[in-house]
Amino acid sequence: LLVKLSTNIKDKPTILNQQNKAGKTALQIALEKKHDNIAKELLDNGADKTINAGQLSEEMKNKLNELSTKP
Fold first, then answer.
1. Average pLDDT for consecutive 10-residue bins of the chain (71 residues)?
2. pTM, rounded to two decimals
3. CA pair distance 32, 36, nearest whole angstrom
4. Looking at residue 23, what DSSP letter applies?
5. How far apart are CA 12 and CA 22, in angstroms?
6. Measured between alpha carbons, how far is 33 from 62 in angstroms, rounded to an integer?
């Protein structure tokens, strides 16, 4: 499912960066739930890591930086 999802959204970053009613993006939710593989896939497909970045805990910021630098 994730591979199929990434194929469909790769050229549509606005979908990746949509926010829910609480203002959270899919990337933020993936980080909160510790779904590193999903967070990495979102980053690889253009998710904006700066949206509401100030609201992330230090642990989530560190994980985001780690995932952002992984090949």
1. 53 80 93 94 89 91 92 81
2. 0.80
3. 9
4. S
5. 22
6. 15
